[in-house]
User: Which sequence fits this backbone?
């Protein structure tokens, strides 16, 4: 919190430029994310929750190196979205609201989500660490990895709800974000929320490999990052003009 408070005291030029540096971590992250996503054959298509222990163990034995590469990459680079989210936090603090509560809630949810993502990576890696172990143990680790990766969406939903509310409460003469960003953020939260049911269903659209829990959740999340990248870039340009600095 103190770091964010100190950011407000930066010279205008430094403030905008540091936000731009943080913003451009997003496309770098997405490129790395796609590479790691494609490398793990368990994502394309996703592994089925109804696989037997023998099927899961055979998959890990066959794709051990690819799983390790994918998850080590996620482990190293998954945090790269945090700077991007912090740009959103800084912009939320510029909004004409009575407090920064929405920004701090967004910040907390973003950090919690990154932690959960890291836990899922660890369980995938532990399952691939000894692929020769008892298939039942590999099945257990795989279940934990997938459920932690897909189901705990409360932090993401919270992020988007906080951003949406902040946009609606921004009553300044020149709102930081267009009002449609609030609608889009709420819609993203609604699209992602059903994935919480992945911890319950073994088959169907709500299972961890299903149309809603896996595909809609991940596509909605990626779309949010991509669209907000362009929204933030435009916002930073307006901030630069308003403060008389260059946003290059």
Assistant:
């Amino acid at each position: 919190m103190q770091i964010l408070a100190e950011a407000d005291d930066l010279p205008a030029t430094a403030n905008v430029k540091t936000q731009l540096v943080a913003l451009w971590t997003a496309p770098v992250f997405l490129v790395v994310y796609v590479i790691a996503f494609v490398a793990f054959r368990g994502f394309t298509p996703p592994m089925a929750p109804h696989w037997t222990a023998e099927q899961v163990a055979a998959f890990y034995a066959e794709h051990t190196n690819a799983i390790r590469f994918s998850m080590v990459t996620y482990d190293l680079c998954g945090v790269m979205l945090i700077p991007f989210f912090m740009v959103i936090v800084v912009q939320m603090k510029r909004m004409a609201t009575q407090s920064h509560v929405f920004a701090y809630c967004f910040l907390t949810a973003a950090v919690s989500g990154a932690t959960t993502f890291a836990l899922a990576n660890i369980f995938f890696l532990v399952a691939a660490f000894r692929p020769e172990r008892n298939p039942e143990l590999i099945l257990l680790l795989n279940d934990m990895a997938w459920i932690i990766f897909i189901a705990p969406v409360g932090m993401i939903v919270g992020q988007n709800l906080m951003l949406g509310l902040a946009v609606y409460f921004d009553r300044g003469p020149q709102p930081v974000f267009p009002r449609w960003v609030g609608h889009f953020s709420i819609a993203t939260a609604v699209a992602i929320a059903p994935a919480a049911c992945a911890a319950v269903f073994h088959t169907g659209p709500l299972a961890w490999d299903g149309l809603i829990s896996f595909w809609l959740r991940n596509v909605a999340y990626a779309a949010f990052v991509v669209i907000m990248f362009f929204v933030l870039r435009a916002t930073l340009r307006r901030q630069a003009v308003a403060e008389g600095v260059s946003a290059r």
